[in-house]
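Possible regression after last week's pipeline update?

I re-ran a chain I had predicted before the update to compare outputs. Posting the input and the new output here so someone can diff against the archived version. Not blocking, just want to make sure nothing changed silently.
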Amino acid sequence: MNPHLSKLQPYPFEKLARLKQGVPAPADKAHIALSIGEPQHATPHFIAEALIAHLHGLANYPATKGIPELRLAIAEWLSRRFGLPAGAVDPESQVLPVNGTREALFSFAQCIVDPAEQPLVLMPNPFYQIYEGAALLAGAEPYFLNTTRESGYLPDFDSVPESVWARCQLLYICSPGNPTGAVLPIATLQKLIALADRFDFVIASDECYSEIYADEANPPTGLLQAAHAMGNTAFKNCIVFHSLSKRSNAPGLRSGFVAGDAAVLKNYLLYRTYHGCALALHIQHASLAAWRDEEHVVHNRELYRRKFAAVHDILSGTLDVAIPPAGFYLWPRVPTDGETFARDLYARQNLTVLPGGYLSREAHGINPGEQHVRLALVAPLEDCVEAAQRIKSFVLSS
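New output (post-update):
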């Protein structure tokens, strides 16, 4: 067996199940889950129709590289969304469709990391646990960058020693952040791009929440956008990961893409050809339809804004919580540790939230998630309002 498997920690939801095991919840309250970031808004009908219309493609093996029409639609979407000139992204060499970004974020490290050189893989803390697992199974050592309220829930890249950058082979960033919703400004992205050029590492920018944001006039900046603006028009060392799961409420489609540095993607395509992870043709056609439509995405953002406003109005003054600039999570500080808060909340209100410490690690003397819980505002508005009222009642009676 791969010896690195023993380094993997239980997944957050496995820990959550153990925390709730044997804890009775009040039977007079319907259960509400705010623990998992699974979108529950309706998947647009036209996506399902495109999927069904292309089921005849089941008789053919799909190419790992994806159909040209899908790659073109993705390249054009990147240019529109991030203000890039037409043709700035080459669909032939700078775009790869993937089976959802979870799969790609994991396999990317297996392709990039050279385990013979004592590599470090840097990542925010708290984080999407795939980053840590990918680093460990690639034979690298994770290096955690704490995000706290004092830092605006952004990593303090200036505090990273040069000796760490020198060993870095891969930097995971997540903007907007999971679970914090914090957005990296363009100046920070450009600083990281300069560091990647100096120390020769690759930036993997997880931008899966980039299409859910509070201010319609101020969408989050992307890594390719930052690179192009500083003259890095080849996107050297820059790879972005995007998904239809959150943007289009289609988590079951398992569809996303990676884009950026052509030299990196050439090798990643080789890896993926052996990995056997081509996107099915009917999924590619449904994805093409999704990337070409923005109306449903605008509507989706509005639904989340209503939920954020309603829940924040109820919890404000009860918990230390703020509406984030992007994403669909709230990340409140709680009066106790997050694990105790989540267990007792479930026991008294039949409401499940995720302890923040399950998403973070002890690093540099602190665990930055320990006094937080994550609330995923994915349920219908009325359920989110009911959940907020139960949380308020729980806090005030504790």
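Follow-up from reviewer: compared with the archived run. The chain has two domains: 3-42+296-397, 45-293. Marking as no regression found.
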